Structure formats: structure tokens, C-alpha cells
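Review form for a predicted model. The reviewer records the input and the model, then writes brief findings.
Reviewer: anonymous (R2)
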Amino acid sequence: MNETSPTRMNLLARRSQYALATRGVNLLQKKRDALVREFFTLVHETLEARRQLTETGREAHMALILAKSFDGPRAVDVFSLSAPAVSNVQAEVENIWGTRVPVLEADWPQGVEISPISVGGQTLAAQTAFRKFCRALIRVANSESRLRRIGEEIKKTARRVNALEQAVIPGLGSQIRYIRQVLDQQEQEDIFRLKRVKRKIDAQRAFRSASRTEV
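Model under review:
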């Protein structure tokens, strides 16, 4: 505070910074509140995605066991090697209140590259079950990635709000009060000096007027 030069220009600058910091706090608080609401919504979505992943994983595992039991392990292995790979993979970035969140999308071809006649029904069912499991896995990955990024942004925003509320704004307020106190004191001193000068001028005028009267 002692390093702050007590001038009117600095007073105006500190007031402008104080107003800007106050608006910044309000905006950051709104951002934090919106992110917190989004976070709790994502918590429920992530839990549901996890539940579906567990369920589809159990179904896929059971379908694989049935396929190997009815169609034979060799037939399942041959079909898995000839099945079409994943296609149409897209990675995008979603913006949530200034937070960049990656979003992954993928799909699989519906057809098979070998004749369905040579493939058992249980093997085809296992393929369908594992595709469903992979979609659930991608959904969990997207949901947990969003949850982690938003959680990190909430912490970062909260730190900025605390820094402004506990350090920046009180510091600017103290500087403003210090500058105003010094300027008020200087103004009082200036008024006192002007009054003293005025009294001297009035006394000199009175003396000159009295001298002329005596003459």
C-alpha cells in the first residue's frame, strides 16, 4: 500500500480495477454454479453408463460362452478375424462454459464379410452383444472424461474466485481507502493554506486601507 502513489489518476485506476474485479467475480461465480449443476447431472449419467456397461459386458461374456459352446471355438475365432473392423470414428471437442471436453464417436458396419449361412446364430448374437458392449464402453469413456474435465474446471474457477475475493478485491479496496485518505488530507491542508493566505491578504488590505485613511 505504501508503494501506491496517492494521486487522483491512481485513484481512478484502482476504482476501475476494483469494478472489473467485482464483475469478474460475479461472472466466475455464475460459471462455477453452472459447472456444478452440469457436474451433478453428469454424475447420474456416468453412474447409469457404468451400470449399462456392466450389464452389456455380462451379456457379451455370456453370449461368447454360448457361441463357443454351440458353434465351436474355432468357428468363433474364424468369424472374429473376418468380421469388419470399427468404422466412422470421429473425435470432436465440445465447449462447456469455456471448458473443452473431447467427445469420441464410433460405429461398426452392420454387414459381415462371410456368408451368414456358414456362421452360427449364437456367434452372430455374440457379435451383436459385443458391439453393444463397445458402444456402452465409449459412452462411459465420454461421460467420465466430461466429468473429470468439468471437475478440474470447477476447482480452477473456485481458486480464481477465492483469489479475487480474498486477495485482489480487498487489496484494491485498501489502496483506494489509502489514496482517498491521503487526498482528503492534502485537500484539507490546501484549504487551510488558502484560508491562511486569504487572511494575510485581507490583513494587508485592511492595513493599506487604514494607512490611506490616516493620510
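Findings: The first helix runs from residue 8 to 70.
Further findings: Residues 8-173 form a domain with the Helix Hairpins fold (CATH 1.10.287.3240).
Recommendation: see findings above.
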